[in-house]
Write a structure and sequence with these properties.
By secondary structure, the chain is mainly alpha-helical. The chain has one domain. The chain is built from 5 helices and no strands. The longest helix is centred in the last third of the chain and has 33 residues. The radius of gyration is 17 Å and the shape is elongated.
């Protein structure tokens, strides 16, 4: 279990940091790109999935395994927040990014940025939960 927990914590902290970078730096810079050029930029930006998707899959699988081993509130909350992140990604972020690959607007860019707070906050809370779990194991 310890190895799985370490992998899970690592992937969560990695995604938390990446999400904060995207939220504070990457998405706001979208407004600096000429809207005419934005779809081409967004198609190239899709390469980020090669980094995020494998990490998110590992994070989900390890989180589910940890919940299977420990059905307490912290592990349940951790996986519930993973579900929120997954739903937000699938139902909000991905469809908006796909639209931006064809037609860009400042309104849609702002919507991508604003709805990403769901994931940013969820990952941040998950990192905190996992630090509490780790602290409890190290006591």
């Amino acid at each position: 279990m310890e190895k799985v927990l370490i992998i899970h914590i690592f992937t969560t902290i990695f995604m938390t940091g990446l999400c904060w970078f995207v939220q504070i730096v990457h998405y706001p810079l979208f407004h600096q790109i000429n809207l005419k050029d934005f779809p081409r930029y967004e198609r190239k930006n899709a390469v980020t999935g090669f980094i995020t998707v494998p990490i998110m899959v590992i994070e989900l699988l390890t989180g589910l395994y940890l919940l299977y081993l420990n059905q307490d509130f912290l592990y349940f909350t951790n996986v519930a927040l993973l579900g929120i992140i997954g739903l937000s990604t699938a139902l909000l972020q991905v469809p908006m990014h796909l639209k931006l690959m064809n037609t860009a607007s400042h309104e849609l860019i702002s919507k991508v940025t604003n709805t990403n707070w769901i994931r940013t906050i969820s990952w941040t809370v998950r990192s905190g939960i996992l630090m509490v779990v780790l602290y409890g194991l190290l006591k």
